[in-house]
Specification:
The chain is an alpha+beta fold. The protein has two domains: 2-32, no CATH class; 45-163, Immunoglobulin-like (Sandwich), CATH 2.60.40. The chain is built from three helices and twelve strands. The chain has helices at residues 2-16, 21-32, 50-53, and strands at residues 59-62, 65-68, 75-77, 80-91, 94-95, 103-107, 115-116, 118-119, 123-124, 132-140, 144-152, 155-163. Strands 1, 2, 3, 4, 5, 8, 9 and 10 form an eight-stranded antiparallel sheet that branches. It has a four-stranded antiparallel sheet with strand order 7-6-11-12, with no helix packed on it. A hairpin with a 2-residue loop joins strand 4 (80-91) and strand 5 (94-95). 21% of the residues are buried.
Length: 166
């Protein structure tokens, strides 16, 4: 019995008697590990409006509000990480500015105030075959997993994006 107790005590000392630098190293590694972030995937082409079904972009949305998911790296501006998103507002199957600019913001767990998007004028890019959109920019204050929400009238579109420094 004494031998068994000695063996258990030795095992406990071996496990707990390590230097204090190892837990710090583990804490540092855990802090540096990327957060688990399941990004939203694009809506399949067959489930998109006709105008977006033939587009090569990664589109996500519903009803009269669609967004192009980021397919390019972020940029930095001052101390922010900047991503741009085209937002398409539709009336029927046609893009329109008549419905106005969607309300868009981003939020991250632990952040109390959403980060609003800023919009440029309603635009059309060369070679997009009549696809017009609202260009939006979001200046994320930090990297991480962010939920972006857009609303237009009764329609709300929400997606998750991983924001990484360039």
């Amino acid at each position: 019995m004494r031998i068994a107790l000695a063996a258990v005590a030795g095992l406990v000392l071996l496990c707990c008697g390590c230097s204090t630098s190892q837990p710090e190293a583990l804490q540092t590694a855990a802090a540096a590990a990327p957060m688990n972030c399941t990004e939203t995937v694009a809506t399949p082409a067959g489930s998109r409006p006709a105008l977006l079904a033939t587009s090569t972009g990664s589109w996500f949305g519903a009803a009269d509000l669609w967004v192009g998911l980021p397919d390019h790296p972020a940029a930095t501006q001052d101390e922010s990480i900047v991503l741009k998103f085209p937002w398409v507002t539709l009336q029927g199957d046609e893009p329109t500015s008549a419905l106005g600019v969607p309300q868009v913001s981003a939020i991250r767990p632990g952040l109390m105030t959403p980060v609003p998007a800023s919009f440029g004028p309603y635009s059309q890019s060369y070679g997009t075959g009549g696809l017009a959109f609202w260009p939006a920019t979001i200046e994320f204050p930090s990297p991480g997993c962010w939920t972006v929400s857009g609303s237009l009238g009764p329609t709300t579109v929400e997606f998750v994006v991983r924001v990484s420094p360039p």
